[in-house]
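Protocol step 4 of 6: structure prediction from sequence.
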Amino acid sequence: MYSIAKFGSSTMQENDIYSDSDLLIVCPVDYRNKLYNKYTDQGFSVTLLSKSQLEYMQKKNSLFIQHLKRDAKIITDDNSKLRRFLDGCAFTPPDEAEILRCENTIQYIASLPNTLSTSAWKADFLYCISRDYLVKKLAMENILAFGFKDVCSYSVEKFSIRKNELLELSKLRKAKAAYRNTFGCNFDISEINYKWLVSLGNAFCINVEIDNHLDFDFIVRRSFNSTYEKLRTLELLYLVARSTGYFHPDHKFITNFICNPNLYGSSRKCNDDTISKYMIDIHSVIANAAMHRTASPLRFASLQSFR
């Protein structure tokens, strides 16, 4: 299969300055690097998938497949293979186990402190999981909503959550954009993290306990709910290590691993083992008491710099 499709807020005419320009590329392995570099250079946020990965996601009833089926604008499609595949994908609502995994991840994020060095990363992770959680909760009501405005509108209609509380989620969305770029936020991210967690916890009876101590031993020992959760935690550890000036010998590979959306969605054991290895490496560096952290807020962009 060789297909390229736009998806996300731009295809639904909901994009703004905080939106990504999302692009899906389904192609053979030999073409991946060339196409990825070509379209990221054009400003797209590229998701690389293989046909087998699409099939696996549909087998797991991924709502992302339903998002593509309904909203994707296909640009290139060899023999209409992507279109035919998507048209044949039936919608199945998430089960309760998937909802519980999301809630556990929310509790994990809440347990991490709102510090200068972690709050921007936390806002990004919290926004992504919160939106995913609301999308899944709506899907359990047989409502497919993927755009931010639709997710908020239906959430007010269906759940015990108010419009003014969703303003906090909107601020998290802005904080996510700031974290992934170089510009800053003009509001206190820590306060927004706290307010949204309280609102989310109250609306869905999720017990969120916010800690004030960053326990790296606890983080590394965690039994992670998904490869995505584990990879975001690797991102946190490496951001903290990078703030000390540390570069892992496999710096480029680690940053590519973190930044590649394809790996975020992968459940292959080889990726899981690789993440574990790097987490142990970086944790040992952080545990070195002689290291001193920067007083500046950490940004995703700081991962991109090289010696």
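Step 5 (inspection) to follow. Residues 134 and 151 are 7 Å apart (CA to CA).
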